[in-house]
Design a protein that fits this description.
Length: 301
C-alpha cells in the first residue's frame, strides 16, 4: 500500500507542478489582454476627459488586484517545489521570479531604492553589506540588474512563500553555530563566483543588528568567499531600510545603497585580510555616521 501511494505521488507531482505553471501563464496572459484591451479602448473611443480620469482612478486598484493574483499563484506554486534536493547551480528563472515580485511589492508600498557611489564590477564579485533590516537584501535584489545570490540564515528557507523560491534560486543557508557547515557554505559561494554563475552577497556582521549600535563588528570568515579565488569585493552600506515597516504605503520610503569601495585582489592582498576587514567596517560605520557628506556620489539611478 505504501509503495502504491509513493508511485501515485511521484506520478501526480509533475502534473501539479505543470498546473501551477499553467496558472501562472494564464494570469500573465489575462493581465496583458486586460492592459492591451484598455489601451485599445482609449484609442478607439478617443481621449475623452472622463475616460482619462477613469484610467487614472483605476490603475492602482487594478495593479493591487493583479499583484494579489500573483501572490496567490506563488502560494499555490510554492508547495510543489521540493526543498530536499540541494541546489548546485543558481537558477535565473527562480531568481527572476523573486526579483520581479520584489519590484512589484516595492512599487505597491512606495519604496524607492537608490544605488550610489562606485560603479560595481563587470565580473563576478562579492558584495559585503551591513544588515539592520529584513528589507536590506530585498532592496539590493530589486535594484540590481545582475544576479546577487545571498548567504542567509536557514530560517529564511522556512518562510511559506519565499522559502521554496530562494532555495531553487540558489541562495545558500549558513549555520553560524556549526563551523563545518559555515565553511561549506563559504566554499559553495566561492564556487559560484569562480564558475561565473552570479555575484554573491553576505552580511559579515553575522546576524541582523538589533542593537542600538550603528554596526556590529565584521567577521573575516565571509570575506574568504572572494579572497580564496581572488574575486573583487564591493563594500556596501545600506541606509533607511529599517524605516520600511514603519511608513510603507503611508509615506514614501527611500532606501540608499552606497557602494563605498570596490577592491580588486591586489588591493585587499596588499592590505592583508584582517586590515582590509577593519577598513571595510570603518568606512561603513563612517557612512552611517556622516551620511552623504562622506560619500562622493558618482551616480544615482
Amino acid at each position: 500500500m505504501e509503495k502504491r501511494e509513493r508511485m501515485a505521488f511521484s506520478f501526480f507531482a509533475p502534473t501539479r507542478k505543470i498546473t501551477a505553471m499553467v496558472l501562472l501563464v494564464i494570469a500573465l496572459v489575462l493581465s496583458l489582454l486586460a492592459d492591451g484591451g484598455f489601451i485599445y479602448w482609449i484609442y478607439v473611443a478617443g481621449p475623452t476627459p472622463w475616460l482619462c480620469f477613469l484610467g487614472v482612478v483605476l490603475w492602482f486598484p487594478v495593479f493591487v488586484l493583479l499583484f494579489g493574483v500573483w501572490v496567490i499563484i506563488l502560494i499555490v506554486w510554492g508547495p510543489f517545489l521540493s526543498k530536499k534536493k540541494e541546489t548546485t547551480k543558481p537558477s535565473k528563472f527562480y531568481y527572476g521570479v523573486i526579483r520581479q515580485t520584489l519590484q512589484w511589492f516595492f512599487k505597491l508600498t512606495r519604496i524607492h531604492v537608490h544605488l550610489r557611489g562606485e560603479p560595481l564590477p563587470n565580473v563576478p564579485y562579492l558584495m559585503i553589506m551591513n544588515h539592520r533590516s529584513n528589507f536590506d537584501q530585498m532592496a539590493i535584489i530589486a535594484k540590481l540588474k545582475t544576479m546577487l545570490i545571498c548567504i542567509t540564515k536557514p530560517e529564511n528557507f522556512d518562510f511559506p512563500i519565499a522559502g521554496p523560491f530562494i532555495h531553487h534560486a540558489g541562495f545558500i543557508p549558513i549555520n553560524r553555530e556549526n563551523m563545518a557547515e559555515g565553511i561549506e557554505a563559504i566554499h559553495k559561494g566561492s564556487s559560484y563566483l569562480e564558475k561565473g554563475y552570479c555575484n554573491m552577497g553576505v552580511a559579515p556582521e553575522g546576524t541582523r543588528n538589533k542593537t542600538e549600535e550603528l554596526l556590529l563588528p565584521y567577521k573575516p570568515g565571509s570575506f574568504h568567499i572572494a579572497t580564496d579565488i581572488g574575486a573583487p569585493i564591493a563594500v556596501v552600506c545600506i541606509k533607511n531600510a529599517d524605516k520600511v515597516h514603519k511608513q510603507a504605503i503611508i509615506k514614501r520610503t527611500d532606501i540608499f545603497i552606497d557602494v563605498l569601495l570596490v577592491a580588486d585582489r591586489e588591493k585587499y592582498e596588499s592590505m592583508g585580510l584582517n586590515e582590509f576587514v577593519t577598513y571595510a567596517e570603518s568606512i561603513t560605520r563612517r557612512d552611517l555616521e556622516e551620511g552623504d557628506m562622506f560619500l562622493d556620489l558618482k551616480y544615482d539611478n
